[in-house]
Design goal:
By secondary structure, this protein is α+β, with helices and mostly antiparallel strands. The protein folds into 2 domains: about 1-80 and about 95-100, P-loop containing nucleotide triphosphate hydrolases (Rossmann fold); about 120-190. About 55% of the residues lie in helices and about 15% in strands. The chain is built from 7 helices and 4 strands, in the order αβαβαββαααα. The strands form 2 sheets. Strands 1-2 form a two-stranded parallel sheet. The protein has a two-stranded antiparallel ribbon with strand order 3-4. A hairpin with a 2-residue loop joins strand 3 and strand 4 (about 85-95). Helix 4 packs antiparallel against helix 5 (about 115-145) and helix 5 packs antiparallel against helix 6 (about 150-165).
């Protein structure tokens, strides 16, 4: 509530002559609520008729990088990183452009979060990302006008298969077990 009151005050008082610095708008609420609030705030501030203030807007919502293509005057900058295998090195340099990567788990490692926790966080992240890929496929099919019944059944099958695959430790499978798993997946896709 305090953060939202501060944002409200900034939006009410900012003008084209203001310098506004915002950090992590929408934090402390659900992901979609937070993203929606941050997006709407960025749109409002960039609109010259409503506000037009010069603004530094730091966010972890990488989905907002697309606003550079949609809103006049919006420019993306990010921290340069170097990937070295599984590790990320933050170069302490600001570069033009956004990123579609999130480095939260790497930051947790750097902060000293126990390895067992960051390892599990990576597993959860991969599972969530797989499920989001399935959701994106659902959205694409809806836009193409696929019938609701077909779409629901198709996505149900994919979600079920993804759930089963999450349980499989491929490093523990024998070649014949791997082949049998593949056959089961193919059967479910029919």
């Amino acid at each position: 509530m305090v953060e939202m009151m501060e944002v409200a005050q900034i939006l009410k008082e900012a003008t084209a002559n203001s310098l506004v610095i915002l950090d992590e708008i929408g934090r402390g609420t659900s992901t979609y609520d937070g993203l929606s609030i941050a997006w709407a705030v960025a749109e409002y501030i960039s609109d010259k008729e409503k506000c037009g203030a010069k603004t530094l807007f730091a966010t972890h919502y990488h989905e907002l990088t697309d606003l550079e293509n949609k809103l006049e005057g919006v420019k993306n900058y990010s921290i340069a990183v170097k990937e070295k295998g599984e590790d990320i090195i933050f170069l302490r340099k600001i570069v033009k452009g956004g990123t579609d990567e999130s480095y939260g788990v790497h930051v947790a490692k750097l902060a000293g979060v126990p390895q067992v926790v960051t390892k599990r966080a990576n597993e959860i992240l991969k599972s969530i990302e797989r499920k989001n890929v399935l959701n994106n496929k659902k959205m694409e099919k809806q836009e193409k006008g696929v019938a609701d019944g077909q779409l629901t059944m198709y996505n149900y099958k994919l979600a079920e298969i993804a759930h089963e695959l999450d349980k499989v430790d491929v490093n523990e499978l024998t070649p014949i077990e791997a082949l049998n798993t593949l056959v089961k997946i193919k059967e479910k896709m029919v």
